[in-house]
Design goal:
globular; 160 residues; Photosynthetic Reaction Center, Chain H, domain 2; 24% strand; single chain; two-stranded antiparallel ribbon
Amino acid sequence: MDDSTDNYNLQELSESDFEIVDDQPEIFGWNVRDTHRNKVGEVYELLFNPDTRKVRYIVVDMESNDAELEEGRVLVPIEIADFDLENDEVKLPGVSITNLLALPLYERGRIIDKETDEEILLALDKAEKDAPIRPGSIHVSQTKFYPKNEEGFIAGDDNA
């Protein structure tokens, strides 16, 4: 079977004949927090592949948040989430409000495909608004300025 189509045969867990196995946390309704510990929503749904029985995405409902985000549901890859079992929370380290606002909205029945994955990757790679430029960013080279005079760039004098 073609892995690319197999990867996108996703179903909502609550609408399926499956359930979370006994040794795994029941995360429906858990608060979701961004990298700055803002409550950005709650776990609404899990999207999984019924053939592999692996969850691929958490659907985060942003209706109940502390960050003044507009209502809507977004897709978050499960592999970037940390589960805080003591506090019944899902933490998204490295994910800011900027990233969440760029994530694709999810509505029941939306087709998840390679383009959706690419859209999610781009959203998660966005630099946080008003944050310092990340090391290694393509924008770093644009921020370095060297003094120059009419003859060209000034080099340091190693005889000094």
